[in-house]
Amino acid sequence: MTVRPGRYRHFKGGEYEVLAVATHSETHEPLVVYRPLYNDTGWWVRPLGMFLETVVHEGREVRRFERVE
Description:
Order of helices and strands: EEEEHEEE
Number of domains: 1
CATH class: Mainly Beta
Shape: globular
CATH architecture: Roll
Structural class: mainly beta
Radius of gyration: 12 Å
Distance between the termini: 18 Å
Strand order of the largest sheet: 4-3-2-1-7
């Protein structure tokens, strides 16, 4: 599974823009490049597997990031 550029909501409520999926130069691990839409703290990267994983939040299993259409 992959991630398309666009708007995503974190399970804690913040909204982010995914800019691209990059590749780590040494390990070739896919990394999601994204930025928060609620402040100007720059670009962030997170391993694709972690971006797509589910987490337990308030007793429920939810996606860490959910695409906002």
